[in-house]
Amino acid sequence: MTPHRVDTKPIDGQKPGTSGLRKKTSVFMSPHYLENFVQAIFEGTGGASGKTYVLGGDGRYFNDRAAQVILRMAAANGAAKVIVGKNALLSTPAASNLIRINKTDGGIILSASHNPGGPDEDFGVKFNAANGGPAPEGMTEKIFEATKSLTSYQILDAQDVDLSTTGEVMLGAMQIQVVDPVADYARMMEKIFDFNAIRALFKSGFRMRFDAMHAVTGPYARAIIEDELGAPAGSVVNAVPSPDFGKGHPDPNPIWAKELMDALHAEDGPDFGAASDGDGDRNMIVGHKAYVTPSDSLAVLAANAKLVPAYAGGLAGVARSMPTSKALDRVAESLGIDCYETPTGWKFFGNLLDAGRATLCGEESAGTGSDHVREKDGLWAVLFWLNILAARKQSVSEIMAEHWAAYGRNYYSRHDYEAVDSDAANALVAGLRDRLGDLPGQSVAGLKVDAADEFAYDDPVDGSRSAGQGIRVMLEGGGRVVFRLSGTGTQGATLRVYLERVETDPARLQDDPQEALAPIIAAAEALAGIKEHTGRDAPDVIT
Ligand code: G16
Questions:
Q1: Is the pLDDT score of 474 beyond 80?
Q2: For 105-190, where are the E strands, in sequence order?
Q3: Which of 92, 342, 344 has most ligand 1 atoms within 8 Å of CB, for mutation?
Q4: What does the H/E/C string look like for 496-536?
Q5: Which of 152, 250, 350, 514 could pair with 213 as two cysteines, CB 3.0-4.6 Å apart?
Q6: Nearest to 214 by CA among 259, 269, 268
């Protein structure tokens, strides 16, 4: 087994986005593409020599091949050890946990999250730092810089490593430890939640359906929800990870998890439904005939955190990404704790969690998590809800109704325009940016603009500044529109329009969100000229 150096040239466009580098699978499979990026990860983070890493992915097409390449490259670059999930599988939160409990130097996670998988779909690689969280911007910049000057990469000439059985094996001078992807994660969940209360809930006849969407959480959910907590067999569906996610789109929202929505809206449907995404960090929560938006879910978790053993002592603070609704802010205010507003991207929560300023964090994009790891965690959010349901002995819709009665309801929706021409999307944002100074005081579709800006974040822990994080327009009466271009798409641009309005009238708390938001939707169109710029009459996805 000889390490050798392969000559290469920089490849354009290897700039990590909101969450690592995501491209079409065929791009990642093209000559030197994966190898260049992995070498850049090593070089951009001070070299691999003597280091220990965690490695795993969501099982999508090319996951297995990419893992073998990365192992050979880690060995050739002098890494001391790689801890890898059996069959190269690890959910993102489980990888974060392994990085932390083994005090490794970081981890490489193979996933394009909720994007579909397959030879014609998407693949992704992200690097997580030693705290278990996504590489912060300073680090991804260094990785990107390294991609621009590569002249060679190092790889070992070797056979594939058998990753199908747990145990230790050597690859050249590097140790590989193949671990059960579920065991340590399940142990952590048991320490956080009241498993006995949840067991009693299932014993009482409570029915749930967890849709793993043919992705990585299947084995985790089966082991924890069915085997440990006693939910009847069959409560977890679509539980076997498949390389193309059963030809589906592993994005837990009412559109892509329609099967689950239908089941929960049937007369005799289960009491509780949940889903997770490709790599297990996102979640969707739905009660019987009651969909809970991610923003509302975050607020409910914060308001009920004391019911969970690990958070019974109270929350240090909470944080949400800027486009996430302000439902969380109202809970934080009543708890008397800080609520931080960060740019989109889990990496921005890392410093707040490390510094002990925030305990719970969340995003409108179906991500919720806490200081137990440094990633959002889909199954954790589901167990949190189960813990609350077990403690409160109420239905999801009763809990929501009481929550809105206490705090008001932040009607919220996100409209996505996908695969829009990039120039057109940039022109739309540039047009808004140019008018920011003039907007306050103007009336748009009958609503007065209170304030408008482009969001910039000054990290209170390390003082770094992240600018250009979305256009915000605040409307009279607590309404808000945010315009942002996604940082995770792989085709053209995705325009996200985030719409929000607060309602405190007790008689108006159960309206249809799209109807409740109609004035805000009209204001968004009037502000940005979405139809004119994108040529689209309606969004592709409404969540
Ligand atoms: C990633 C990030 C999230 C972000 C989401 C959407 O999630 O980790 O922080 O909210 O993308 O980002 P964007 O609006 O830029 O597409 P995931 O689950 O895809 O890793």
A1: yes
A2: 107-110, 122-128, 152-156, 167-171, 174-179
A3: 344
A4: EEEEEEEECCHHHCCCCHHHHCHHHHHHHHHHHCHHHHHCC
A5: 250
A6: 259
The tokens describing 65, both together, are 């091949």
330-388 pLDDT per residue, tens: 999 999 999 999 999 998 999 999 999 999 999 999 999 999 999 999 999 999 999 99
Q: Best of 114, 320, 363, 420 to mutate for ligand 1, by most ligand atoms within 8 A of CB?
A: 363
Q: What is the pLDDT of residue 491?
A: 80
Residue 26 designated active-site:
no
The total of other beta-carbon atoms located within 10 Å of residue 217's CB is: 37
CA distances from 137 to 179, 348, 356, 492, 533 (A): 30, 9, 20, 23, 30
One DSSP character per residue, 321-342 reads ETTS-THHHHHHHHHT-EEEEE
Beta carbon of 367 within 6 Å of any ligand 1 atom: yes
User: Does ligand 1 have an atom closer than 6 angstroms to the CB of 496?
Assistant: yes
Ligand 1 centroid to Cα of residue 252, in Å, is: 13
Atom nearest to 282 CA in ligand 1 = 18
344 Cβ closer than 6 Å to some ligand 1 atom: yes
DSSP one-letter string for 357-415: S-SEEEETTTEEEETTSSS--HHHHHHHHHHHHHHH---HHHHHHHHHHHH-EEEEEEE
In contact, 367 and 294? CB cutoff 8 Å: yes
Chain segment 137-189, per-residue pLDDT in tens: 899 999 999 999 999 999 999 999 999 999 999 999 999 999 999 999 999 99
User: Which tokens in the block code for residue 81?
Assistant: 């050890």
Pick the catalytic residue from 91, 96, 111, 113. 113
480: left (phi over 0), alpha (psi -120 to 50) or beta: beta
